[in-house]
């Protein structure tokens, strides 16, 4: 496992070749690491919480765990969460070793050939680049035949300098969106809720504290383990899609992307004790992730579920 670093006057970025996992995204003005990471980097070999990892071949949950390939044949996928194929399955991109090459003073290119998974062979490149106070990710992929592809990053953000403070009092605003309803098995459905009635507490279009969406004693809140674990499918264009502030308002993050949705998850389920950052036990609501991607289960919802050329970009503005 190797560690790599980029740095300019505003940001320090650190990542690993394993999973292309981001371990540090530091605002240098006040030395705040915006992301949480395992204290013991050996934990990235398993990375059961997906901390900072690259997620693919298909991000999110797929059910039934199959897809129809370019020949119209049904391909069976592996399952790694109940009956679901989650985040690329048992051998997702977050567990793979990426080849890393510095391609600019403030840029690295990471490469991986996916030739042994259940999906068709595909060549992948990730570009990590710093531009002033922005960290930019570009995902590119190419296949000889059309194949599923939906990649994202799974960094958990906690903008508090002291990571013993949770994100419950972070202030969050999103672009107007509908949420993709899930069932008790976390299966994404083809039902979309505009959050104007029973589920209005999940609506962040006007901005509010993250904890205002917690523990609301409704079926969807119960399915989400009393936090947030939902895809927000944007209904309006604009930017940023995501705007987040630390508890004290001192640190700020804006996220821009070309993707149609964002899965927001507030680290609701703690099933393995590990230490993060400065030896702090991982805790419920200790971070919040924004997975910019196509909507979960899109390979069963959308006609254009296969591609030979894939491109996605995410820009994180560190303020």
Descriptive keywords:
2 helices, nine-stranded antiparallel sheet, 42% strand, single chain, six-stranded antiparallel sheet, Beta-galactosidase, Chain A, domain 5, 319 residues, mainly beta, 27 strands
Task: Note down, in words, how this protein is organized.
The protein is mainly β and 319 residues long. 3% of the residues lie in helices and 42% in strands. The strands form 7 sheets. The protein has a 9-stranded antiparallel β-sheet, with no helix packed on it. The protein has a 6-stranded antiparallel β-sheet with strand order 15-26-23-20-17-18, with no helix packed on it. Strands 1-2-3-4 form a 4-stranded antiparallel β-sheet, with no helix packed on it. Strand 11 and strand 12 form a beta hairpin. The longest helix has 5 residues. The mean pLDDT is 97.
């Amino acid at each position: 496992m190797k560690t790599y670093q980029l740095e300019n006057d505003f940001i320090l970025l650190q990542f690993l070749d394993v999973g292309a996992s981001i371990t540090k995204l530091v605002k240098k003005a006040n030395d705040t690491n915006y992301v949480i990471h395992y204290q013991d980097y050996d934990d990235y070999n398993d990375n059961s919480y997906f901390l900072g990892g690259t997620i693919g071949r298909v991000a999110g949950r797929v059910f039934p765990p199959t897809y129809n390939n370019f020949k119209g044949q049904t391909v069976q996928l592996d399952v790694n969460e109940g009956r679901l194929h989650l985040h690329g399955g048992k051998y997702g991109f977050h567990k793979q070793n990426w080849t890393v090459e510095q391609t600019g003073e403030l840029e690295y290119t990471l490469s991986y050939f996916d030739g042994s998974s259940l999906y068709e062979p595909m060549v992948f490149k990730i570009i990590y680049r710093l531009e002033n106070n922005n960290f930019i990710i570009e995902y590119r992929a190419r296949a000889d035949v059309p194949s599923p592809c939906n990649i994202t990053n799974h960094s958990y953000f906690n903008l508090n300098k002291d990571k013993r403070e949770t994100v419950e009092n972070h202030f969050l605003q999103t672009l107007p969106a509908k949420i993709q309803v899930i069932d008790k098995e976390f299966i994404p459905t083809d039902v979309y809720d505009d959050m104007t009635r029973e589920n209005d507490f999940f609506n962040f279009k006007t901005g509010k504290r993250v904890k205002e969406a917690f523990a609301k004693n409704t079926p969807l809140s119960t399915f989400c383990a009393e936090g947030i674990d939902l895809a927000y499918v944007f209904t309006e264009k604009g930017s940023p899609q995501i705007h987040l502030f630390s508890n004290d308002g001192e640190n700020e993050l804006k996220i821009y992307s070309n993707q149609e949705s964002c899965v927001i998850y507030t680290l609701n389920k703690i099933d393995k004790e590990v230490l993060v950052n400065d030896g702090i036990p991982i805790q419920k609501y200790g971070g919040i992730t924004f997975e910019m991607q196509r909507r979960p289960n899109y390979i069963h919802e959308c006609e254009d579920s296969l591609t030979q050329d894939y491109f996605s970009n995410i820009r994180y503005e560190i303020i």
